[in-house]
Structure formats: structure tokens, C-alpha cells
Amino acid sequence: MRRRILLAILLAVAVTSLVLGIPLGYTATAVVENLTREDLAGRVRQIAATLDDELALGRTLDLTRFGLGVPRGGRLTVTLPDSADQYTLGPELPGDTVSEEVPIVQHGTVRLAIDAGPMRTTQLQVAALVALVVIITVGLGTSVAVITARRLARPLRHVADRASRLGAGDFRLDRTRYQVHELDAVAEALDASATALAQLVQRERDLVGDVSHQLRSRLTALQLRIEELTTAPDEEVASEARAALEQAERLADVLDELMTAAREARAAGAEPVDLSTQLPAIADEWRVLLRAEGRSLKLRVADGLLAKVSPARLREVIGVLLDNALRHGGGQVAVAARGDGDTVVIEVSDAGHGVPDELTKHIFERGVSGAGSTGLGLALARALIDSDGGRLELSSARPAVFTVFLPVPRAGDVRGVRWPPGDEPVTPR
Q1: Residues 402 and 324 sit within 8 Å (Cβ to Cβ)
Q2: In whole angstroms, what separates CA 74 from the centre of its chain?
Q3: What distances in angstroms separate CA 420 from CA 409, 412, 424, 425, one per listed residue?
Q4: Share of the chain above pLDDT 70, in %
Q5: The CATH number of the domain where 338 resides is what?
Q6: Are 229 and 291 within one domain?
């Protein structure tokens, strides 16, 4: 994009410079020649008028008297009809010359010629000056093109990256603006879309959770009722109850499989992620914001620590927790990651006053906030991390410590690895 913008502006500058420069150069050289000829014409007319007066008075023709009117190095030629000879003053001019000729009343002509070399030199200098102006114009245009292309390309790349992150599930708002009305309008639209998508995802998560909970509760109640019927004295009733209980258990298994499949479908982007590279990149982004508030961020993560998670969702969740610490916490913010058996634990804490008691049990509910914010961030973060098979909990209220639990990748999670038949890793149920 930057290259296209640069080439378009340079092409416009070059075409404009050529369209204006060529006519300007031609006009400038023509003006130099016209000025030279007008000067010669003025001189030769004055000489012709004086000659007319002298010839009318019958004086002898003496061209030396007109030496001051002849340019340096020029040649004056007077031709009279009653004389076979020409009267000349000045040296012979070989080669290219510029001349002007006028008639005199006594039926003769006066011709004044000069060497064209000085005029051609002046024309060349003027043309070179015009070319220099064109070159300077192109140079300035190039500078403006580079600055403009950079100013436009950088926001466009940022907008493209923002749209890509939004498509990957990163719904964080980005308040970056570019002082370009059209690009700022796109950024506003992306922020509005991010908010709408975040609310949509949260509603989806809540709906799925509510539906699964209600189905599980009703199914459990149904199983309990049927179990009571299996002990009925009537053998036929008991047999039918046992068959019904078996079908209910199968239905419960199907429900579990459907919920598992739904979670796996949502976690299609989950992959083995090296936290020792991902977390520092996230921390660097938020360290600048914390430093602006006079606070610091400390990161502690073991080298080569792997977790199964979607990179975009990891950025979103950790970003929500760090934003929460920035807005509602105080003091130093700490991010620590460690392995704990089959689980990877990431803790985000700060040295602030912690979470009020009245908010502790509702901190992950939608609309719950202690500082007038939307109350959507923590709820969305929990839903996203749950989609990848992890959990988000408030481990400590004072000081506030949020803990993310992520599964450790299995051998089968490594993409591109083909396992020999019979040696595939067993997936625990």
C-alpha cells in the first residue's frame, strides 16, 4: 500500500512537472530570442532613421558614426539602390547569426547582425534553470510523497491489523486515532463492532451455559424419578423403568458429547503456545501504559513453558486482566506463569486495595463493576478462556489475584506430527 501511494504521488508530480516544465522551458528560450531581436530591431530602426536624414541632406555616407549603435562584435550592412557596393561596419560573422533588417526611405536597406552564440548560451542557461526548478519540484514532491505515504500507510496497516485481531477474537478497544477523518471513522466502526461482537459472544456463552445447566438439571431430576420406579414391586414396571433409565443415561452421555464438541469447535484455534514468548510481548504492550501512570509491571515465566490456548484469546484475557489492574488496582502489577502438573497457571496481581467484599461473588457477572465501567471485560475473559478448555478465577480478593488455568498440550495437539498406528496418545476422558 505504501509503495502504491508513493508511486501514485510521484507519477502525479512527474506528469505535472513535465506538462508545465516543457512549455515553460520552450517559452523561456523563445522570450530570450524575442528580447534579443527586439533590441536589434530598435537599434537598426534608429540607424535607418539617421541614415534617411543624412541621405536626404546629400551628405556622404559614413558608417563609423554609428559605431555606438552597433552591438559589440556586431556587423552593420547598408545597401543603397544606386550603388553596386554595400557599406559595412564591423567584422565578418561566420556561422549562426541573429539579424534584423529594415528599409530606408531612400530605397535601401539597413541590416544589423550579431553572433547567435551569446543568445544560445543564455537560452541554454534559462533552460537549465527551468530544468533545475523541475528537478527541485520533483524532489520536493518526492519528499511530500514519502511523508504522505508513510502517514497513510502506517494507519492503514494498523487498521488492517486491528481488523485481523478482531476476526481472531481480540475484542479489546483500540483508542488509537490517526487525524485522518476517513481512517478515524473506520477505527470508530471497528471499536463499535468489537463491542457488539464481545456482547454477542458473551450472550452466546451465557445461553449455552444456561441451556446446558437447565437440561442437566431436568435430566438429573428425571433420572431420580425413574430410579425410584426401578424398585417398584411390579416387575413389568420395573423393567420399563430400567430401560427408561438406560435411555436417560444415554441422553446424558449424548448431552455431554454435544457440549464437549461445542467446546472443541469453539477452541478450534487452540494450539500449543510458548508462554515465554507470548507473555513478554503482551507485557511490553501494557508496560508502556502502566509506566505512564507511574507504575511498573513485573513478569516471571519459565523458559519453554507451553499451554494449549488460542493466541488471540490469550492476548484478550491477559489484556483484560492487566487493564483491570491498571484501572482499578494500584502499585506494581505482577504476571507470573508456572506449570502445575497437567495445568499451566498464570497469575495477574497488583498491590492495590483489592476487590470489595460485595463484588467478590459477582465479579465475573455481566454489568458488575466497581468503577462505572461496562462490567463486560471479566465476564468475556472468563467465557473466552472457558472456550479453550481453561478457567479464570479470582484467587485472592486482597490483594486482587486473578488466576488463569490452562491445559498442558498433549502430543496429539502438535500440528503436523503423524503418529504410527497403535502409538497415538490416549486422550483422557
Answers
A1: yes
A2: 67
A3: 19, 12, 7, 10
A4: 86
A5: 3.30.565.10
A6: no
Q: Are residues 398 and 321 in the same domain?
A: yes
* Residue of 37, 32, 39, 35 whose CA lies nearest to 128: 32
Beta bridge partners of 75: 113
Q: Which residue carries 523541475 as its cell?
A: 134
Q: Which domain range does residue 40 map to?
A: 2-119
At what angle are helices 117-167 and 2-56 packed, to 10 degrees?
160
**Hey, what amino acid is at 387?**
S
Same-domain status, 283 and 403? yes
Residue 150 within any structural domain of the chain: no
Which of 18-22, 31-35, 358-362, 365-369 is the least confident region? Answer: 365-369
Q: 3-class secondary structure for 324-349? A: HHHHHCCCCEEEEEEEECCEEEEEEE
Both 360 and 278 in one domain: the answer is yes
Q: Are residues 288 and 402 in the same domain?
A: yes
| Grid coordinates belonging to 226 | 425413574
d(CA 378, CA 232): 50
Single-letter amino acid, residue 379 = A
All three cell numbers of 368: 458488575
**Residues 260-268: contacts with CB under 8 Å, at least 24 apart:** 262/208, 263/386, 263/387, 263/389, 266/387, 266/388, 267/310, 267/387, 267/388, 267/389
- pLDDT at position 381, please? 82
236 in the same domain as 344 = no
What is the number of other CB atoms lying within 10 angstroms of the CB of residue 205? 18
The number of distinct structural domains making up the chain is 3
Measured in whole angstroms, the distance separating CA 83 from the mean position of its chain's CA atoms is 86
Give the residue from 194, 196, 199, 202 showing the smallest Cα distance to 166: 194
Residues 149-161: pLDDT tens digits?
A: 777 777 778 888 8
374 in the same domain as 392: yes
Q: Over the stretch 212-226, which tens digit does the pLDDT of each residue have?
A: 777 778 888 888 888
pLDDT digits (tens, 9 = 90+) for 19-75: 888 888 889 899 999 999 999 999 888 888 888 887 777 777 778 877 888 888 888
Burial call 33-54: b when 16+ CB within 10 Å, e when fewer: eeebeeebeebbeebbeebbee
What are 184's three cell numbers? 478515524
